[in-house]
Amino acid sequence: MRKNKNKRQPTKRKTASQTQKSKRPRNDSPKMTEKDSSELTPFEIFFQKIEKFSKLHMKDRDRVQEILQSMQKAGSKTLQVISDFDMTLTRFEYNGKRCPTCHNILERSDVISSDCKKKLQGLLDKYYPIEIDTTLSVEEKLPLMVEWWTKAHELLVNQKIKKDGLAKAVRDSDAKLRDGYKDFFDHLHEHSIPLLIFSAGIGDILEEVIRQSDIFHPNVKGVLKAFKGELIHIYNKREGALLNTGHFQELRTQTNVLLLGDSLGDLNMADGVQDMENILKIGFLNDKVEERKQSYLDSYDIVLIKDESLDVPNAVIRFLTE
């Protein structure tokens, strides 16, 4: 696996937040009023910092402020992070080329047969257009997505791939975690903040990507393994969350959640959290931007459009652990 360099964007202080409320997307928000830097609160400094990111959009900035302030007041010991993997913690593209998902890593490797590759490609050609079809409801897509993932899963299991084959497939792949991944994993580990990864991808591949990046820390919990356990696909992560109630029971004091996803199906990953007080949802909108932008703004608190970094989640986590 080719690793990314951990990059940070330079930050500059802006002016303080205006008290007038707005529910318009960030780019249409009113300009902030001037205030001397010595009068800024730590929260105002932080919030101005994240608002500088050009790829960050919010429908209701006041709601985001309220959630963040409440989470900070509760303290970092009450925080857990729940995240999708493919196209959320990993990059969507690099140098104009699509990066592989966990399934793609195997499909493009030499550890599976050419016949299996052909069949997997046929499934992709048939079902992927359905997955991204904005005219179909989740209810209409669901049985077809289950059909797709079940068939693909069975094809891969029947290949009887050995562990060293998985490691080689990841090593030879173009899989890349998002810029800032090392800060993300290391900072969560440093502050003992649990990270639960829900994924429709192959858990064995997912773990190998993390291990080869030297960031598989003890706080990374509950990785759902498609080779070893329940089949999790893009639209049944709520059921996956409820099946994983043992994890949530252990973390019953972590009642504040930072959720990261790249699809509307990811929004239900925290449904098993008990006595949840606050949840901040950050969504990565990777493609089909104009078609899907409004639905993402309606569903996620913060939307990152074509952003291949973890700079915003990292800024949020650092603020919550200060």
UniProtKB/TrEMBL annotation:
Could you tell me which species this protein originates from? Astatotilapia calliptera
Keyword Metal-binding: yes or no? yes
Known InterPro entries for this protein?
HAD-like_sf, HAD_sf, Pyrimidine_nucleotidase_eu
Q: Which Pfam families match?
A: UMPH-1
Annotated region (Disordered), positions in chain:
1-37
Quote the protein name from its UniProt record.
5'-nucleotidase
Which ranges are annotated Basic and acidic residues under compositional bias? 25-37
Q: What is its main location?
A: cytoplasm
Its EC number(s): 3.1.3.5
**Subunit:** Monomer.
Q: What does this protein do?
A: Specifically hydrolyzes 7-methylguanosine monophosphate (m(7)GMP) to 7-methylguanosine and inorganic phosphate. The specific activity for m(7)GMP may protect cells against undesired salvage of m(7)GMP and its incorporation into nucleic acids. Also has weak activity for CMP. UMP and purine nucleotides are poor substrates.
Q: Which UniProt keywords apply?
A: Cytoplasm, Hydrolase, Magnesium, Metal-binding, Nucleotide metabolism, Nucleotide-binding
Gene Ontology biological-process entries: nucleotide metabolic process
Matches recorded under NCBIfam families: HAD-SF-IE
Q: Name one GO molecular function term.
A: 5'-nucleotidase activity
The UniProt catalytic activity note for this protein reads: CMP + H2O = cytidine + phosphate; a ribonucleoside 5'-phosphate + H2O = a ribonucleoside + phosphate; N(7)-methyl-GMP + H2O = N(7)-methylguanosine + phosphate
Protein family according to the UniProt entry: Belongs to the pyrimidine 5'-nucleotidase family.
A GO CC annotation given for this chain: cytoplasm
> What SUPFAM superfamilies does the annotation carry?
HAD-like (SSF56784)
Q: Where in the cell is it found?
A: Cytoplasm
**Domain of life (superkingdom):** Eukaryota
Q: Where is the composition biased (Basic residues)?
A: 1-15
Which gene produces this protein? NT5C3B
